[in-house]
Design brief:
By secondary structure, the chain is of the alpha+beta class. It has one domain: endopeptidase domain like (from Nostoc punctiforme) (endopeptidase fold (from Nostoc punctiforme)). About 35% of the residues lie in helices and about 30% in strands. A hairpin with a 5-residue loop joins strand 5 and strand 6.
């Protein structure tokens, strides 16, 4: 299996060295360093960072997904998984080259995907704003907490009658 072993970042491209010694060059355009997403479930966005395209016009995205188990660089067709791709709503505070550099360094670190502390949204937000955060996890657990709290309050109200 081939994987990314290192990269050299330039203003207009990135040269990615694969484990077998092959070098793949991805050329940047106006979308490089921007985040995009596809819907995994109606309420959950699966984001990734658009890196650029190779000499054949194949677009590449960096993303973190439980099936791969760590951040990876994949062709756009694999990232989209047959779904439409949309611009991710999070505003980037990092410039595009920094976003790309952070995303590629996270791929090299091969940190394991975890739902609670390093999921797809954490990965993208770390690149965009240098802060891990996952609105999907926060919203899900906030909703669960609210339901549990409401149940507890109803229980106390019923028992005090």
């Amino acid at each position: 299996m081939r994987y990314m072993s290192t990269f050299n970042l330039f203003n207009d491209r990135v040269d990615i060295m694969l484990s077998d010694g092959e070098i793949v060059t991805l050329y940047f355009n106006q979308n490089s360093g921007r985040a995009y997403y596809r819907n995994k479930l109606p309420a959950i966005k699966h984001p990734g960072i658009y890196i650029g395209s190779d000499q054949n016009g194949i677009e590449y995205f960096a993303h973190n997904h439980p099936f791969q188990g760590k951040p990876t660089l994949v062709p756009g067709i694999d990232f989209s998984d047959g779904a439409n791709i949309f611009l991710y709503p999070e505003f980037a505070t990092n410039p595009p080259l920094k976003v790309i550099e952070i995303a590629l360094n996270r791929i090299l670190s091969a940190e394991k995907y975890t739902l609670m502390t390093f999921n797809c949204q954490d990965f993208v937000n770390e690149a965009l704003i240098s802060k891990r955060k996952s609105p999907a996890v926060n919203n899900s657990f906030g909703g669960i907490f609210a339901i549990l709290l409401a149940g507890l309050l109803l229980s106390f109200a019923s028992s005090s009658k």
